[in-house]
Design a protein that fits this description.
Elements: E1 2-5, E2 8-12, E3 26-28, E4 31-33, E5 35-37, E6 49-51, H1 53-62, E7 75-76, E8 81-85, E9 92-94, E10 107-108, E11 121-122, H2 124-132, E12 134-147, E13 155-157, E14 166-170, E15 185-186, E16 194-195, E17 200-211, E18 218-225, E19 243-245, E20 248-254, E21 266-271, E22 276-278, E23 283-290, E24 301-314
Length: 315
């Protein structure tokens, strides 16, 4: 049946008996079908051909899928497992698991630093270490007063060290990054730190601060000169040139005024859990600066009381 409307066929319906041959392409819903992919022909990934059911089956099975059915023929128990089998219901049991077969991050062993969490377990030796490892706690207290530098550089104690509350040694550095910020101390002032007489751990600091010059935040910190850090250690009488020590900032804390003003009012700063290891003879240098200032800073007069927390292993 053909219906002619104006200049076009509105719809066309026909029945054919026998074979139908189309000379050209078949357009189905705006898709120009140019070919039919049959079984065993090469697959073409396009939108201009259609596939027979056999071609579709070939494509699916080419991915390794199988139409076969059956049972697993055997289960073998691997390392740390027992059981297995090749018939019926099979059970695998954890058996004979050793420490070496557990992920290293999940086990704390003797000699490793203790980590307080619920995602690891401890060996008997590690537990013994934890029980028997004891520390004596002590505090080194001192005060400092310094006029801040416009450069924002950290200020260290002067020639008289921490026994003199007036600090005036320019550290040569104004950044505030632990393990990166490095001071530069002239040989004439390299002695002004605190030299520890025995191996210990600096656990942190607690400080009380007052900025007498204005409502600006203050940062306090400790620079460390340690043999373990190589060139940062004090060279004593063996140095050449003027620079004798390049201690590295390892601990710092910003003042906290708990929402009030910093101007002429007390604020506090504290750090715990730093755990900086020091060998006998290493030094640390306390320091003060205006928080975040790297240039054109105010020259405020700042006062700070330092308490340095130290742990010493009891053998």
């Amino acid at each position: 049946m053909i219906k002619w409307v104006g200049s076009k066929i509105e719809y066309f319906k026909a029945k054919f008996k026998g074979d139908v041959e189309i000379d050209g392409n078949l357009n189905l819903h705006d898709t120009n079908i140019q070919a039919i992919q049959e079984s065993a022909t090469s697959f073409s990934d396009n939108d201009t051909s259609i596939m027979t059911s056999a071609a579709i089956a070939d494509k699916i099975e080419a991915y390794g899928y199988s139409t076969a059915t059956g049972d697993i023929t055997g289960v073998i128990a691997g390392t740390g497992l027992s059981g297995g089998g090749d018939d019926g219901n099979i059970t695998l049991n954890v058996s004979g698991l050793t420490v070496s077969e557990i992920a290293a991050a999940a086990i704390q062993t003797s000699g490793e630093s203790f980590v307080d969490n619920d995602t690891s377990i401890m060996t008997s030796a590690a537990i013994n270490d934890k029980i028997n490892t004891k520390y004596a706690n002590s505090i080194i207290s001192f005060v400092g007063q310094a006029t801040m530098l416009a450069s924002g550089n950290w200020i260290l104690p002067g020639k008289s060290g921490i026994s003199n509350h007036t600090w005036n040694q320019d550290s040569g550095v104004n950044t505030e990054t632990n393990a990166t910020s490095e001071a530069s101390i002239d040989r004439r002032w390299a002695h002004n730190g605190v030299r520890v007489p025995f191996a210990c751990i600096v656990e942190g600091i607690s400080c009380a601060i007052s900025n007498a010059g204005g409502n600006r935040q203050v940062t306090v910190g400790l620079f460390f000169s340690r043999d373990a850090d190589g060139t940062t250690a004090v060279t004593w009488g063996t140095h050449t040139g003027n620079i004798s020590s390049e201690p590295i900032l390892q601990i710092h804390a910003d003042a906290d005024n708990e929402g009030g003003s910093y101007s002429g009012r007390p604020s506090h700063a504290e750090v715990t859990g730093s755990n900086i290891s020091m060998a006998a003879g290493d030094l640390f240098y306390p320091a003060i600066k205006l928080t975040g200032v790297t240039s054109e800073g105010s020259t405020d007069n700042v006062y700070a009381t330092f308490n340095v927390h130290i742990k010493t292993l009891i053998s």
